[in-house]
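Example A, followed by Example B.
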Amino acid sequence: MITTIAIVLILLLATILYVEHTFKEVTTDLVPKELISTLEHEDEKEDTHKKYGTFNYDRLLEMGLSDEDAVGFVHELIPQIDEQIVLLDEAIKIPDIEKMERLTHSIKGSSTTIGEGGISKLLIDYNTYLKAGDDIDVIQAFQDDLKVELSKLKNQFQAQQQAIEA
């Protein structure tokens, strides 16, 4: 009796796996690749503020830096990211995933050392994706988000710099 139950369970499992595999093949054959990519990465189109939050440099303040010094570190980070964005745009055109991974890794390290949230969180996600992913549409979405987050960072710290100087 136990043998019969085991055989029935194995057959049931085999049937489920077969149907699942067949369904996957049928749906991916019938649905255009662009639509599958869009559906799989729908969350990439969210507002970046909801996804990544606001950058903060509390880590620098906890290390004993003054507000003025912390903002200075952030202002040094911004041109580095600007330069890397240009290089990333060039690497996307080729596309050179390895180069993109190296570039995002370097600015991810700098940004996460200084702070968290916002551009730091985005760069962690972007770099992590590049280690295993190669969908150029997803990469372009991350690149677009990086430009948005950099613009937000510039605005945020320009206001803070003006407040410190006042």
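Example B, a separate protein, is given below in the same form.
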Amino acid sequence: MVEAYLSEVANFDQNQRQIRLNELDRVFTDKENELRHKHLGLKELADRLGSGDSQALSVKQQMLLQQVGDLRRQLAQVQSDLWRAQGEVKVQEAVLAATAADKELGLSQVEFTLAVASDPLLRQFLMELWILERDKAITESVAQGPLAAR
């Protein structure tokens, strides 16, 4: 009965994280589509203006740069949320894997969870591991450049 409850709770948490991940993916796709739409709109506007006036072109360029900056910030936020959710999933997977190994030692899920929760070094280690993985992913994303993904 305890195992059924723990399985249900673990599955619920996993399902909630998957729902959040799906939501973040959807938001990312929506924002990417919104960016494409705005880009096309600005391109049409620039074509309609057809201005050789450098001041008008400078204003258009400034607007584009501002929009690109806004969209990059939004993308970074979505990526950060996604990485945070993925980090939480990895921590939970590590806890579940360790739990399976500890069952051989006779520890229950509850005992193991309490031990992990009460061990500040282990919690800090898991959080630092997640932060390092997130920073690595950010660094790789920046190294590829904003246009590399397209």
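On Example B: The CA atoms of residues 72 and 95 lie 34 Å apart.
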